[in-house]
Structure to design on (587 residues):
């Protein structure tokens, strides 16, 4: 990072550390309160400095002169850390009520997510994870997902807690986000590969020939994702529930009728015809393996030849299976 | 229906071994009345499962009545004489500590411990087994206990970390109340792992010992602004592999 571009307080933090930052700021605020506040309210201030100066802000009672961004940031900290005293001073945190809140969350994430000065088990980390979840879930901000994915794998290598961050990542309900995890299948680091497999619900590769295996598994996964993306939904299975979560799954009914669904709630995004509704009633009573044959075949011919698909989908289900099996076995 | 050694079980005599309204009777009655077939190699294998389910419930009641705290992973606490707190907030056995002593300590010095509901539930399985296995056997079977929700569970009880849809639920099952619209700032309320105590009651660490509506009410109080989906009890259960654990028990008893 170019230190020249850092704010005055950030420069002290980066060069001299937390204790010096707090001491220098405290002394300055006692001597020249307006200047101390102007430093704190600097536009290019980074969140870690504000966070580290929270005790001084409290002790010197600087709340009233903070800019709206800093007030919102402190409201966010109070909410996530369940700090009632701080909450009473700065007011309640309200989601989705104004642009300042969202911009502040983005500022906290952009300037604070990568900072590791506090270690990875403390309150600071809780704030970052909470902000991430607010952005992905409440504000549906997908721009943060690449950085979140990288944070998950970095923390995992360090043995730190990742479960809340993983949860926040999947709260985006974005099938494209799976690619951000899949790319770690190609990592040379075995911890990355194991975690990527776990998050994507893939089998771990054998030790021998691992590189080739992973390249194939990566390509296969991308192919699978491309084929099923319109029919994927998020199961909301996470580490809190199970040691073997399957965060996403294919809605075979949707794939069978080739109708897109919402990955968040599994509802179809396109209306079903009366004929499709009747077909689905029978389809959904069939065993899983037959559903898979039918849905895979349906998607395949829908992509290849729409008129052929229309002919096939109007046949009786028994006839559809015979055709699908013959075609799939023939291939 | 219960099948023992390929024969349907006539349940009258085994039922008489347990008090009326006991959870063991409830389990046998549910199994007998079910369309599912519950297979066992011997009556002892079935009794082992009944005993273990009883001990899981006893452990849940003991933890509920203890001073064991609710803490998120970042704030988790343990007795350093027995456990090392790991970077991810889990607990790993200290070197040269007997696993059986370490598990017991959670219940005797409960005030020194704090974690969230999944890890607390995992502890219940170890405590239940400690009540059944001789301590020496327990120490040999579980030499490296790691407590961190359903992560890296010992392979002998690895199945407790899985959940699957089942047709029948029994006292001693692990169940889960899901909270799909949880407040993003409180992910610890995304759901509650509970043990089915029988008689419509559940124990979940952090909420307590209640019937299902109370769990749903508490989870619903921790939802995102504008939430429209209620918390609910999932139709899944987590269960240890009782048969494998019985096999280990048989071996342990034969050796001792």
């Amino acid at each position: 990072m170019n230190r020249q571009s850092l704010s005055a307080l950030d420069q002290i933090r980066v060069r001299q550390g937390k204790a010096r930052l707090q001491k220098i700021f405290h002394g300055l605020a006692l001597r020249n309160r307006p200047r101390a506040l102007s430093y704190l309210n600097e536009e290019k201030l980074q969140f870690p400095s504000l966070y580290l100066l929270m005790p001084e802000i409290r002790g010197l009672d600087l709340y009233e002169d903070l800019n709206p961004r800093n007030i919102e940031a402190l409201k966010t900290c109070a909410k996530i850390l369940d700090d009632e005293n701080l909450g009473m001073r700065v007011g309640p945190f309200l989601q989705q009520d104004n642009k300042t809140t969202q911009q502040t969350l983005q500022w906290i994430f952009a300037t604070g997510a990568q900072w590791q000065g506090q270690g990875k088990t403390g309150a600071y980390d809780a704030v970052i994870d909470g902000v991430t979840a607010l952005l992905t879930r409440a504000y549906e901000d997908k721009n943060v997902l690449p950085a979140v994915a990288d944070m998950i794998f970095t923390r995992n290598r360090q043995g730190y807690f990742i479960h809340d961050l993983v949860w926040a990542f999947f709260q985006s309900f974005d099938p494209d986000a799976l690619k951000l995890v899949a790319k770690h299948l190609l990592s040379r680091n075995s911890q990355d590969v194991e975690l990527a497999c776990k998050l994507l619900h893939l089998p771990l590769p054998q030790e021998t020939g691992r590189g080739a295996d992973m390249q194939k598994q990566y390509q296969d996964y991308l192919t699978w994702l491309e084929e099923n993306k319109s029919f994927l939904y998020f199961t909301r299975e996470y580490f809190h529930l199970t040691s073997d979560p399957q965060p996403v799954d294919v809605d075979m009914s949707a794939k069978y009728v080739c109708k897109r669904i919402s990955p968040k709630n599994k509802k179809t995004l396109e209306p079903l015809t009366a004929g499709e509704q009747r077909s689905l009633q029978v389809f959904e009573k069939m065993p899983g393996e037959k559903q898979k044959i039918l849905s895979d075949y349906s998607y395949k011919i829908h992509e290849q030849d729409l008129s052929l698909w229309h002919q096939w989908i109007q046949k009786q289900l028994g006839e559809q299976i015979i055709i699908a099996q013959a075609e799939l076995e023939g291939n | 229906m219960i099948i023992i050694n390929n024969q349907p079980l006539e349940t009258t005599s085994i039922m008489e071994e347990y008090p009326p309204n006991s959870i063991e009777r409830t389990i046998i009655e549910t199994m007998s009345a079910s369309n599912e077939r519950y297979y066992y190699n011997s009556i002892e294998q079935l009794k082992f499962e009944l005993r273990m389910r009883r001990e899981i419930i006893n452990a849940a009641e003991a933890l509920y009545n203890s001073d064991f705290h609710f803490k998120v992973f970042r704030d988790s606490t343990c007795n350093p004489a027995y456990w090392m707190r790991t970077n991810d907030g889990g607990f790993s056995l200290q070197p040269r500590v007997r696993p059986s002593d370490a598990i017991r300590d959670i219940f005797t010095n409960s005030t020194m411990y704090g974690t969230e509901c999944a890890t607390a539930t995992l502890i219940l399985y170890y405590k239940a087994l400690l009540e059944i296995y001789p301590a020496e056997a327990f120490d040999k079977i579980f030499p490296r206990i790691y407590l961190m929700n359903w992560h890296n569970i010992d392979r002998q009880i690895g199945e407790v970390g899985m959940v699957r849809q089942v047709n029948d639920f029994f006292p001693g099952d692990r169940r889960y109340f899901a909270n799909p619209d949880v407040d993003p700032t409180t992910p610890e309320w995304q759901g509650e792992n509970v043990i089915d105590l029988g008689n419509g009651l559940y124990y979940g660490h952090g909420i307590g010992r209640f019937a299902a509506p109370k769990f749903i009410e508490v989870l619903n109080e921790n939802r995102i602004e504008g939430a429209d989906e209620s918390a609910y009890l999932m139709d899944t259960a987590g269960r240890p592999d009782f048969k494998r654990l019985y096999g280990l028990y048989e071996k342990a008893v034969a050796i001792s």
Summary: The longest strand of chain A covers residues 232-234.
